[in-house]
Amino acid sequence: MRIITTACLALLFASAAVLVSCRKSEPVRIGFVGGLTGKGADLGVAGRNGVQLAVEQRNAAGGIQGRQIEVVVRDDEQNPETATRVVSELIGRNIEVIIGPMTSSMAMTVLPQINASKSILLSPTVTTAEISGKDDNFFRVSGSTTGYAAKSARLQFEKLGIRTVAAIYDSNNKSYTESWLNDFRTTFSALGGRVILVTSFPSSKDTVYHPLVKDLLAAKADAVLVIGNTVDSALICQQIRKTSPGQRIALSEWASTERFLELAGTAAEGVIVSQFLDRNDTSQRFRDFLTAYRARFKQDPGFAGVAGYDAGLVALEAYTIRKKGENIKDTVIGKKVFQGVQQMLNIDRFGDSDRKTFMTVIRGNQYITVE
Question: What is the CATH number of domain 26-142+281-346?
Fold first, then answer.
């Protein structure tokens, strides 16, 4: 019969305590995937910053049950191969929540990987209707194009008297752009309007805008609708203003970043833009967020920064309240309602949210909320 001495017992207990301590000190890791380089980098950078701010604030308040949180950031480069590789890496590290991607095309690319894993995608800004109402591992804190594009169509027809539209969209992100255009056209046509021209272009550093704009203006539509990223939208607006200064222009929410105002300059005046962000919000919660974001990153957050912050809040809350043995997907679905920086976020059993959208007009280099 083996006799365990007091010294041995003390050593065993000490070893167990060390193991428990190590587990407690291991950080909670959250992934982030977004385009941090290239034309759409302002979207990805702002989204990442929003997530990072939410995490830093929680860490300063003690983390999650005494554990600090670490954001593992990856650049998808807006490239399908890169996105597939970096998401595979995050899944391989057993990271359960991957915030991102920031565009619909990248989400559609990596969704099969995610659905085959135990991880979830939690996107701040993906709005394609292709993945609405599906029981998968995709979640979002934004709504779908079904609501956003319809609201833009109604404003333009009912409030602005627009009856004909010529549209142009980026075919490199067609999961979003075609979804947005189709939802806009459905509502606009039902009201009595007509989309009389549709053209597209693959966004690249070699894109030539003049012939595209020439065709748009030749249609002599009441308004030109641009569904593209910040850079492309700004350059298209500039080309339109050179030829037809008084042409009415509308943009989807993808372009509604602070950088668009900077790049478009005076060509942005009077442009109608959809928004995820209510810039007229005077609530204390939003003012505190704005102050913290500006202090940390020396710039305004824009809609992507707000949406990234909201996605971070949802992820952190889910980790905090999760029951022992419960997967993170069931935790989010069970909680349903989360507090965002500007509004309550209701996430249904399919992972879809009901985020409000706001219609703005650009006046004096500022987005002014009109609806």
Answer: 3.40.50.2300
